[in-house]
Amino acid sequence: MMKKIFALVITLFVILLMALTCPDKKAHTEAIRSAVSGYVNETLSQRQDDGIVMGFLGSLFVSKVTEVYLDNSLEVSNYLLFSVGRITFDGTTRVVSVGAFNHVFTSDKDDIRQALQKTDE
Question: Taking the model in full, what pTM does it have?
Answer without folding.
Answer: 0.78
